[in-house]
Amino acid sequence: MRAVFFGTPAIAVPSLRALAQHVEVVGVVTQPDRPAGRGRKLRVPEVKQAALELGIDVFQPERVRDGALEQWLRERSLDFALVLAYGRILPPGVLAAPRLGCLNLHASLLPAYRGAAPIQWAILRGETETGMSLMQMDAGLDTGPVFARRSIPIGPDETGGELTERLGALAASMVGDELLRAVRGELPAEPQDSSRATHAPPIERSDCVIDWSEPADAVHDRVRALLPRPSAFTTVSGKALRILGTARFTGTAPELAPGEVCFVKPRVLVGTGTGPIELLRAQLEGRRELSALDLVNGRVLESGTVLGREHLGLRSTRKQEARG
C-alpha cells in the first residue's frame, strides 16, 4: 500500500516510524518551519526531522485550501493517508484524495475531547483515563466514525508532557494493528454518539492563569496539564511567575488565604480554595527556573506574599464554557 503521513510535533514521530515499517510512505506533510525562542531561529518540526532521516519526501504547505496540497496528494496515487497532530483542518478535497480517504489517530477516547488540545484538557478536568482513537476523517472536527479505541490511565501527578509521550507510543502500536486491519477492510467503523461529545479547544493564555481560589486539586491539575509548555502562571509583585511544579499537600499547615505564601521549613505552601498546595519549582519573569526554596532564599517569595493579586478570581469564558 502507498500512504502519506500528516503530522508535526514529537507525539507523531513514533507513528510515522511505525507506518514506514508496514507500508510504502511516499510523502510526509507537516507544518512549515517557524521562528521560535528568543533568537527567533527557524524551528524544524520533529516530524520533518524524522522524515528526512527516513529518506521520505516532505511537503510543507503554507495553505491547505488553495488546491496545491490536493494536487500533490493525487499525483502520488495513494491508498490512504494517516493524520496525527498535523495542526490544521483538512478540506473535503484533501480528505478525498487518497483512495481510502484519511484516517486519524486522535489523543482521546472519542467522542470525548474533540479538538486541538485533548491531552491538556483531560488533565485539566481531572480525568483519570484517556487514550487514542483511530477514526475515519470527515468534514467535521473529530466527528468521523471510529475504528478502534485504546485506553490508558492518567497518573495523579502525571504532566501533559509525560502523558503525551505515552500516548505517542500507544498510537504507534495501533499503526501495526488496528490501522492495518482498518485499511484492509477488516475493522468496521462505528459512528460516534455526538450527544456524549466534549470539546478540547486550543489552550489560550487565559487558560494558563492560576486562580488560587479554585480547589487545591484543580490548581495542581492545571499546573501539571500545562507542563512543560505553555505552563501555568501567576503574578508576584506585578511580575509573571511561571509555576513549573506543585505537589498535593496533606500535612498540618496554618490557614491560608487563596494565593498566600507560607514557608513551613522545608516546604513552601500556597493557599487555595480548599487548603494549601506545595510549590516545588517556578520561574520569575526574566530569571531562570529555581526551586521554591531558592525563591524564598532569594526573597522573591516570603511568608505573607499573596500571589496573583491581579488575577484573583479570574476565570476565562472559555473555561466556563468547557465546564458547561
What does this entry look like structurally?
The structure is a single chain. This protein has 324 residues and is of the alpha/beta class. The chain has two domains: 2-196, 3-Layer(aba) Sandwich (Rossmann fold), CATH 3.40.50.170; 205-323, Roll (Methionyl-tRNA Fmet Formyltransferase, Chain A, domain 2), CATH 3.10.25. The protein is built from nine helices and 15 strands. The chain has helices at 13-22, 46-54, 68-74, 92-95, 118-124, 160-183, 216-225, 292-297, 317-323, and strands at 2-7, 24-29, 34-36, 41-43, 58-59, 80-84, 102-106, 129-136, 146-153, 232-236, 239-248, 261-264, 267-270, 277-284, 290-291. A seven-stranded mixed beta sheet has the order 5-2-1-6-7-8-9. Strands 10, 11, 12, 13, 14 and 15 form a six-stranded antiparallel beta sheet that branches. Strands 3-4 form a two-stranded antiparallel ribbon. Strand 6, helix 4 (92-95) and strand 7 form a beta-alpha-beta unit. Helix 1 (13-22) packs parallel to helix 6 (160-183) and helix 5 packs antiparallel against helix 7 (216-225). The model is unreliable at 312-324 (pLDDT under 50).
